[in-house]
Amino acid sequence: MSTLFDDQIPITKPNLGLEEWESIKDVILSGWVSQGQKAAEFEDSVASFVGAKYAVAANSCTSALHLALKIHNIGSGDEVILPDSTCMADANAIILSGASPVFVDVDEKTYNIDPQKTEDAISSKTKALMAVAQNGMSADLDSFRSIADKHNLVLIDDSATALGAEYKGKRLGSHGITAAFSFHPRKMITTGEGGIIVTDNKELADRARELRSHGASVSDMERHKAKGTIVQQYFVNGYNYRFTDIQAAIGLIQMSKLDTFINKRREQAVFYNNAFKDIEELEIPFVPENCYHVYSSYPLKINSIAKFTPKDILEKLSEKNISCRFGITPLHQEPYFSSQNLADRDFPGSCLVSKHTFYIPIFPDLSKKELVYIKDSILEFVDDLRKNR
Ligand SMILES: *Cc1c(COP(=O)(O)O)cnc(C)c1O
Q1: How would you write the pLDDT of the chain (389 residues) with one tens digit per residue?
Q2: Ligand 1 near 161 CB (within 6 A)
Q3: Of ligand 1's atoms, which has the minimum distance to the CA of residue 133?
Q4: I need a surface site. Which of 123, 161, 170, 214 has the fewest CB within 10 A?
């Protein structure tokens, strides 16, 4: 079978196989393909893995984040603080809730939002902080928790990239903060598309379930079990953010492989770290002692002494059929936000990260041979440039 992945080492590739293929067969033959029993099992599996009491799956992490904002009553007139260097989905979810995103610079070492600068950005309209785990590594949650407590703000943890990552020895999702995870193929596990929120608060979970399904007071499955004798009511207007049992069947298999995925990614990161740690032009990812990194992505930063840019190295690696990515464009630079006239000088961290970082392939099925080939290609490129200096 020829695929889009032929002839190149992709930046990422999900590990999906016959087990996932088999798992959807039962769901399809059962006749119940929308959100039902399998989705509930999958929610339980994620909740127990991360160590949260409740999990509510949704059709994407963006929807999950929107639900997270809504269940905490964030909306029109409110400001929500988020990192300037993150996925557009964070800003989109905030805008969708009716609130306004307020960008805060990131720490160039961790790629995560800077706690001190967060405190400086708080206004009388600030209602929530969105901490984001970038690349598979937690933000400094305790700093954000104390800022949130001090200013009476809601804290939401976008852990889209970081299922299995830990902060202070506990997995993200188990810190008593409403957290969201993504199941897009670029993330730790995949269900095609999909997301989930986790919380320890039953009332918040119930509200999320209601909003996820048009605002209905009764789920489709409950109505089915009651053979139509119960009728749903609508106390709120909601959305259709439901997950499907087909996705859940895939997700349950993926969950059973998650420990292996994490171990593989961490081994690959150790290989890259050892290969690049003594190259003076490059900076390997910095991991604070209190973080357990799961490397959903592997960024390399180019130091100021280097005579090359991410574009130079990406072009070289592309010729070698290695697919890489540029660092994240700061949100304040996106055309959509141009009317806000935000200045680069207020975001030195996210500007630096975007100008000097590039991402190299990392995913569970990346072979040792491919890893060595990627390492050799990067070292060869750096060596050639040194000779030409
Ligand atoms: C991928 C990602 C999202 C969006 O997830 P979807 O499931 O694609 O909606 C949100 N935030 C971060 C940090 C992400 O990396």
Answers
A1: 556 666 899 999 999 999 999 999 999 999 999 999 999 999 999 999 999 999 999 999 999 999 999 999 999 999 999 999 999 999 999 999 999 999 999 999 999 899 999 999 999 999 999 999 999 999 999 999 999 999 999 999 999 999 999 999 999 999 999 999 999 999 999 999 999 999 999 999 999 999 999 998 888 888 888 888 888 889 899 999 999 999 999 999 999 999 999 999 999 999 999 999 999 999 999 999 999 999 999 999 999 889 899 999 999 999 999 999 999 999 999 999 999 999 999 999 999 999 999 999 999 999 999 999 999 999 999 998 888 76
A2: yes
A3: 13
A4: 123
Cβ neighbour number for residue 101 with a 10 Å cutoff: 22
Q: How far apart are CA 186 and CA 189, in angstroms?
A: 8
From the CB of 86, is ligand 1 less than 6 Å away? yes
Residue with CA nearest ligand 1 atom 1: 160
Identify the bridge partners of residue 129 per DSSP, sorted by sequence position. 81, 155
Report field, pTM of the whole predicted structure over 0.85: yes
- Quickly count: other Cβ atoms within 10 Å of residue 169's Cβ: 8
